[in-house]
Specification:
The chain is mainly beta and 126 residues long. The protein contains one helix and seven strands, in the order αβββββββ. Helix content is 13%, strand content 45%. A three-stranded antiparallel sheet has the order 4-5-6. The chain has a two-stranded antiparallel sheet with strand order 1-7. β4 and β5 form a beta hairpin. The longest helix has 16 residues.
Length: 126
């Protein structure tokens, strides 16, 4: 199957934005500010939380282990995009806060039909 370049380019952009947020210049208000949008609250978000949908329009989810219990999540952070694959960090949402499960999954991009961007967030345990 052919790689969906639209999805691939979007995920690559998200990855670049997240990588740029790893440094302390996120509080810079000048031309070198590594993100778009205002920073009125001076919060430096490090993750653009996403969900994915397959070609059948179904929300994609992945299983992860937490204290030997299998859980499922449909929220992710882009870690890497190469060729026809994307590596995603599986996130958990507890009371409106996003946490890393410390587990990742690799997804074939040609199987993804849509990406939904949720709010930008601070994931402190990356």
């Amino acid at each position: 199957m052919k790689t969906n370049s639209c999805i691939k380019n979007l995920l690559k952009l998200i990855c670049v934005l997240q990588n740029n947020s790893k440094n302390l210049t996120c509080l810079d208000e000048g031309c070198t500010k590594p993100f778009l949008g205002p920073s009125v609250t001076n919060i430096c978000y490090n993750t653009r939380v996403i969900t994915l949908y397959n070609k059948q329009g179904t929300l994609f989810s992945a299983n992860y282990f937490d204290n030997d219990v299998i859980n499922s999540s449909s929220i992710f952070r882009v870690l890497n995009v190469t060729d026809d694959c994307c590596t995603l960090l599986i996130l958990n949402n507890i009371d409106g806060e996003f946490f890393s499960t410390k587990q990742s999954i690799t997804v074939k991009l040609s199987c993804i039909c849509a990406v939904k961007c949720l709010e930008d967030a601070v994931v402190s345990n990356l």
